[in-house]
From TrEMBL:
During catalysis, the active site Cys acts as a nucleophile attacking the alpha-carbonyl group of tRNA-bound glutamate with the formation of a thioester intermediate between enzyme and glutamate, and the concomitant release of tRNA(Glu). The thioester intermediate is finally reduced by direct hydride transfer from NADPH, to form the product GSA. Residues 319-413 form the Tetrapyrrole biosynthesis glutamyl-tRNA reductase dimerisation domain. This is Glutamyl-tRNA reductase. Residues 15-160 form the Glutamyl-tRNA reductase N-terminal domain. The gene is hemA. InterPro entries: 4pyrrol_synth_GluRdtase, 4pyrrol_synth_GluRdtase_dimer, 4pyrrol_synth_GluRdtase_N, GluRdtase_CS, GluRdtase_dimer_dom_sf, GluRdtase_N_sf, NAD(P)-bd_dom_sf, Shikm_DH/Glu-tRNA_Rdtase. Belongs to the glutamyl-tRNA reductase family. Residues 180-305 form the Quinate/shikimate 5-dehydrogenase/glutamyl-tRNA reductase domain. NADP(+) binds at G193, T194, G195, K196, I197, G198. One of its GO terms (molecular function) is NADP binding.
Amino acid sequence: MEKYNMSKNTTFYALGLSYKKADAAIRGKFSLDTKAQSDLLLQAKAEGIESLIVTSTCNRTEIYGFANHPYELIKLLCENSKGSVEEFQQVAYIYKNQEAVNHMFRVGTGLDSQILGDFEIISQIKIAFNNSKREDLINTFLDRLINAVIQASKKVKTDTEISSGATSASFAAVQYIIRNVEDIRNKNILLFGTGKIGRNTCENLVKHTKNTHITLINRTKNKAIELAGKLNVIVKDFLNLQEEIKQTDVLIVATGAQNPTIDKALLNRKKPLLILDLSIPRNVNPDVAQIPGITLIHLDYLSQVTDDTLERRKQHIPAAEAIIEDMKLEFNTWMNTRKYAPIIHALKAKLNDIAASELAIQRKKTSNFDVAQVDLISARIIQKITNHFASHLKNENTCVDESIDFIEKVFQIGQLAPKHSSSQIEKTYKINLS
């Protein structure tokens, strides 16, 4: 496996947890709001981490970055969320080097999304990239990789039909409502929260239900007013939340709070109510389902709903994977060039030193020594030798790391950095990452 060591003895890691193994409750514990993400970046910088990004969505929380050992990144995640190392170990994944690169490409192109072809995650990666860049936490490697992933995402979206048809968490929510609520056009619908998923849900509600009784409530009223102006829906004050809930037939919760915003105390009503919680962490206390007449549906359930659109999308996975392979090859070619360029320069310098030393000896021994002619010949020989090494390192079947190590040892170029003991670190932090 190729190593992506940019400085010292750091390794490139991708680690985190997603919908695949972590349920909504656990994802909620590791969820990072805007402030927590900012705090994590500042802590990383203070602790000497040179390059990383952090993303946190309803489906996953991940860190991509360089470290001596993955625990350095796990520690950042746990100390800035409500999750523990023990909980992380039970549901998390840790990839390094090429596997980490592969993972980022699949996430960024929607192949690893809870709903296949959902491209909302690439926007989160862009935001994470800009946040880290502001803190000077993006090195050349991560800059190039993220841009390659963004380009791959664009190409997959435009050159394949893997995102064709309307399928997303917000669309799934609206489809569930249409299928399970009779006469939805004339029902009262209340949307609480106007973040990205809330905005998308509201747009889908207006488009697909033709309902004129949609009400928005948001803690920051101006955001709700802005959205309402575009979609011609009603806005109410946050203080009127309980009163509006009494009158509604469908309540959609899409707030970004770290604790439940809807509980039994707010649901003082007698008629049936359908509640859809589209938040991570959960923003509706699960115990409301115990109230007679209340139906509570969470985002995870909606994401499991498959239809013909998703089945059609699966047919385009091979085409998407082919695009990813092309982009990865281009990225790895660039990376290998960065790897072997310094060793080629160092080898050339070493050969020049050897030649200069030998020529100095021969100059003393030989009368009428033609310095210019000998310098020209030796320079041409050295160039041919280094060209052969460069061609070898460029070959796609070459293990660049092993070849560089070999050249360093044979020509005694530089010294290899001491290895960090993973077992010692795991012992120190009492963590098993096997």
